[in-house]
Every structure is written in structure tokens, then in C-alpha cells.
Amino acid sequence: MTQTIDIFSLFRNRINSMLTTASWIEPVKQMLGITGVSPVWDDVPAWYFWIQGAPGVYALVLEQIGSDGSENSSSFHGLFSLKCYPFPDSKEFPGFSFLEQRLVSSEYFDRTNTPKFECRETIPAPLFVVGAIELELDREDGWSVLTLECQDVIRARYEAEALEDYPLIDVSRIYSPGDVGREIAAWRTSWPLFDRVVSLWAHYTKVKPAQILLGTAAGFEYVYRGPAGWQCVETPGTTVRSLRVLFVGAKGKDEIKRPPGREHSGLETTVIYDGDSTCACPSHAGHACKDTPYANPLWWSLPDAEFTSELGSTCGCT
């Protein structure tokens, strides 16, 4: 008999379980600088994260699933948008678009620096997106993969004059050639959340990264060129990065062949770490490279750490 699986619920439950486990352990939250987490109570699985020193409040929103849920599916894919609602006093704030800046300071947001519940569907979904995170789960729980993909810089600029209307805030604005409408250090902005998610996943699963691959390619920017409208233009000065962190549990080692490092389509791939060989750093042999900006030693130490559980809320809220 064919087994039907609710993939949205699968990912919602896994992330909730990960956060619930962390909510019991105050030292883990302190170690990661997580000051608050809250699920977004909606049909679409989503969560807000408050992180000490971060440029804003993060939102992780499940946008797509990559499996039909049939019993023949070998793995389940969940693609999440990574959003950042910037704090007005952060250095990243001026790089967000005019509309994003106005919304954060408007009646559409509340004192937590997140959209008011009744306003969430009013705010266009593409706003505040700085990257994407994919979670791939083996059907038999033998392995899992977390991937962060974004540009080092997201930029939208004008090569022709444009009149932009913003009915949401009842404002219009004229842009001149040479104006930059949005310029965000997306990788730097996205990394704090991805680092915490990988750390929490390692703590929750009690599994260390088995492999880390970095894919890179020439980036792009959005350019307004008059009647032709907005165009996506490849820009050699920017880079698209895709960081893939593979976890292989005891069950994966014993019962299934380790999934090979997936090639990044169209990207140049570098091995940052491989537990079966050596990392990219010549100073290490089969150990986590502590010098690379693409890994955190906590990803390896948290699975072994023993903590005393403390009472916490079911969602990890503080």
C-alpha cells in the first residue's frame, strides 16, 4: 500500500523538535547567542529567530518541498527562504530597499521588529529575502544535508530614470541613472542564521558534519534599463555561493552507502571538509578546519557535549 506523507508537516515537526531540544538547554542558547525563537502560527511552516549581535530578526519560511511523499521517494527536500528584518540602527539597514526600510518603521511591524500577524500576507513575499536554506532528509534517517545559497552581494541599480510607486505605503519615488535601489552583503547577513541552524541540527541529531562542499559561480545583479524594465545581468565582481553540509548518522554508515557529494550544477566546487580524507586546509587531516570562514568548530563539539536539561517552552521562546 502506498504511504502518503505530509512533507510540510514533516519539516515543521523536525524544525520544531530541533528547537524544542535546544530550549531545554540554556548553555546551548547562550553559546549560540540565541535570545529568542518563535514559530509563526500559520499554514506555512515558518519561524522567527533573534540572535545576539545580528543585523535584524531572521525569518525561516518553508517555500517549496521536493518530494511527492510516495513510498518510492528516497529523500525529502525542503527549500526555505531566509529573510532578515533589519534593525534601523544596524549598519546593514541603509542597504535594504526604500520600501523595506519604510515598512520596518511603519505600522506593519510591531515592537519585536517583525511583521504584525494581521499584516504578514499584505507584505510582498520577495521583500527582505537575503538567501535560501535547503534541508534534505534521507527517508530512512541515514543522512541529512543543510545548504545555504546566496550571493555575497545582492544589488539592484538603475541605468535609466524610473518612477516607482509604493501603494503599500502610499508613496512614489523617482530614481535617476546611477542610483542603487538595494545593496546588501547577503552572505554576511545570512551566515549568522545558517551557522545557528547547523549548530542546532548537530546538537539535535547528535551527528557531526561528514562533509562540507562550497560551490561558487559568477554572481548577478538586477538592472533597470528603461522600457525594457528590470533585467538580471551576470556580474563577475559578485559571487554566488552554495555551502553544503552533509551529516551521516550511525544508521547511514551501517545500512546505506554514504551519499556522494552532490555536484553543484554550474558551480565550481571546493571541498572544505571531508571526514573520509582531508579538509582543504593543509594544516588539518580529516579534522574540522577551524580556520575556514565556512565552518564553526561547534558543529563538531555540540554532538558530544553533555548538558543538564532545564525547563523551557515547547517552541524555545524566551
Q: How does this structure look, described?
A:
It is a single chain. This protein is α+β, with helices and mostly antiparallel strands and 318 residues long. The protein has 6 helices and 13 strands. It has helices at 7-23, 26-32, 98-104, 186-205, 250-255, 298-301, and strands at residues 34-39, 46-51, 56-65, 75-86, 129-138, 143-151, 154-158, 162-166, 171-175, 180-184, 209-224, 230-248, 268-274. Strands 1, 2, 3, 4, 5, 6, 7, 10, 11, 12 and 13 form an 11-stranded mixed β-sheet that branches. A two-stranded antiparallel ribbon has the order 8-9. A hairpin with a 4-residue loop joins β8 and β9 (171-175). α1 (7-23) crosses α4 (186-205).
Present the secondary structure layout:
Elements: H1 7-23, H2 26-32, E1 34-39, E2 46-51, E3 56-65, E4 75-86, H3 98-104, E5 129-138, E6 143-151, E7 154-158, E8 162-166, E9 171-175, E10 180-184, H4 186-205, E11 209-224, E12 230-248, H5 250-255, E13 268-274, H6 298-301
Parallel strand pairs: 7-11
Antiparallel strand pairs: 1-2, 2-3, 3-4, 4-5, 5-6, 6-12, 7-10, 8-9, 11-12, 11-13
Helix pairs in contact: 1-4
Outline of this structure?
The protein is built from 6 helices and 13 strands. It is of the alpha+beta class and 318 residues long.
Key terms for this structure?
alpha+beta, 11-stranded mixed sheet, 318 residues, globular, two-stranded antiparallel sheet
